[in-house]
């Protein structure tokens, strides 16, 4: 038997919070990670004096004071507020959908004028309760915004027609009748000064925790199950069961990163390309997350693609078919007594960082309550 109380599979946020809290309670934890670095998808690295978000733009936001205090133990946050813009065939619109967007699109000036325009356009639904993303989007913002800013972006992002996608995906975005370009409604928001990797590094820096990277759980699954009293698994739940009930669907991403010999490429951290012709969904200019003034800049074009075995699974595709299949895997997982499943892949859920931390804290507190 192993000298450890827990084996944590995956050094992302879920695994790191679990390991950290267990270590503070005197438990001995081994963490294995198949990538060559810790921090999972929140990993950032420094290049040209700029923190590069290697797996896509990450902005921390929450309204939960306890969570905000929790994460501030591990880093100081700057005052960054996410205000992405949309580029539709060269036309620029503010996001999320707010009075600035409505003014640019329709020339309306007051909230009442904007509301009247939305009401007129949503009447195509005939009062029907929205059952998919297309209907939900039209019901929230009308047909013009749906056509220019949502339809093609969403179909590029998810590889499916908006009529086949769940409504909740678009409800993530605020719709406001105020001139407020803040992408989130949350009370607290920012980017950790010095990047995200340090957060996970500090969580894992404890005498009771040993970390090994470049180690894949599946290379020795049966041995780990035999050796460790308890395993926390944050990889893909269907892969854990060797896809025996079928494959869950994921979206993968391809990142194209370039260093440019100029100070300022696009004037904003995030620009979404909402037409169907542009092959990528967005361009991130990393320095703008931290108000950088370096002489060079680094940009990343984010392409979305269908996941196939061997690709990184970034997004669960939470439609009815996949949620149903996930439930069946969850039932199998419940019978796997010594394994706890967690995180975006273990729970097959579109979690943001604050939600993953909350889920990990709840899990570890439940686990170690006595
Ligand atoms: P992960 O970070 O995926 O960690 C799981 C780890 O397990 C990985 O490192 C993986 O390599 C490892 N692993 C898997 N299988 C094995 C195995 N067999 N053996 C060993 N190791 C294994 N959240 C926000 O709050 N704000 C944002 O702005 C934001 N933007 C995002 C943008 C993109 C493009 C993406 C993809 C996500 C974004 N998120 C954002 C969500 C955020 O990334 C997640 O909430 C968080 O990283 C999930 O942590 P996790 O530990 O569940 O998963
Ligand atoms: N979305 C859109 N147009 C945009 C930005 C977002 O239609 O310019 C839709 C799209 O369906 C996306 C969803 O809103 O999947 C949620 O957007 P968010 O920015 O939260 O996605 P994430 O950062 O998780 O990729």
Automatic annotation (TrEMBL):
It is an enzyme of class 5 (isomerase). Keywords: FAD, Flavoprotein, Isomerase. Its cofactor is FAD. It holds the Pfam family NAD_binding_8. The keyword ATP-binding does not apply. InterPro entries: UDP-GALP_mutase, UDP-GalPyranose_mutase_C. SUPFAM superfamilies: FAD-linked reductases, C-terminal domain, Nucleotide-binding domain. Its EC number is 5.4.99.9. One of its GO terms (molecular function) is flavin adenine dinucleotide binding. Belongs to the UDP-galactopyranose/dTDP-fucopyranose mutase family. This is UDP-galactopyranose mutase. Residues 148-350 form the UDP-galactopyranose mutase C-terminal domain. GO terms for cellular component: cytosol. It comes from the Bacteria. PANTHER family: UDP-GALACTOPYRANOSE MUTASE.
């Amino acid at each position: 038997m192993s000298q450890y109380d827990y084996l944590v599979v995956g050094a992302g946020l879920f695994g790191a919070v679990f390991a950290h809290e267990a270590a503070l309670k005197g438990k001995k934890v081994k963490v294995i990670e198949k990538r060559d670095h810790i921090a999972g998808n929140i990993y950032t690295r420094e290049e040209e004096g700029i923190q590069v978000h290697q797996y896509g733009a990450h902005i921390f936001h929450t309204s939960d004071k306890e969570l905000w205090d929790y994460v501030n133990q591990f880093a100081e946050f700057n005052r960054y507020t996410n205000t992405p813009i949309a580029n539709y065939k060269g036309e620029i619109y503010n996001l999320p959908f707010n009075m600035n967007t409505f003014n640019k699109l329709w020339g309306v000036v007051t909230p009442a004028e904007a509301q009247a325009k939305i009401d007129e356009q949503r009447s195509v639904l005939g009062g029907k309760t929205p059952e998919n993303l297309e209907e939900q989007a039209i019901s929230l913002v009308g047909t013009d915004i749906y056509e220019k800013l949502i339809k093609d972006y969403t179909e590029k992002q998810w590889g499916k027609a908006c009529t086949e996608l769940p409504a909740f995906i678009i409800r993530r975005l605020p719709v406001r009748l105020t001139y407020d370009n803040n992408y989130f409604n949350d009370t607290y928001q920012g980017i950790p000064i010095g990047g995200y990797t340090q957060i996970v590094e500090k969580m894992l820096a404890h005498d009771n925790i040993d970390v090994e990277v470049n180690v894949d759980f599946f290379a020795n699954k049966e041995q780990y199950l035999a050796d460790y009293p308890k395993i926390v698994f944050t990889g893909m739940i269907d892969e854990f069961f060797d896809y025996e009930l079928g494959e869950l669907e994921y979206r993968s991403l391809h990142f194209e990163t370039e260093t440019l010999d100029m100070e300022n490429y696009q004037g904003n951290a995030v620009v979404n390309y909402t037409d169907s012709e542009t092959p990528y969904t967005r361009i991130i200019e990393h320095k703008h997350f931290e108000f950088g003034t370096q002489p060079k800049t680094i940009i990343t074009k984010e392409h979305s693609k269908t996941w196939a075995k061997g690709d990184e699974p970034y997004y669960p595709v939470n439609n009815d078919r996949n949620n149903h299949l996930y439930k069946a895997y969850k039932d199998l997982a419940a019978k796997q007594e010594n394994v706890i499943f967690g995180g975006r892949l273990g729970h097959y859920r579109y979690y943001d960082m604050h939600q993953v931390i909350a889920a990990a804290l709840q899990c570890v507190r439940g686990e170690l309550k006595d």
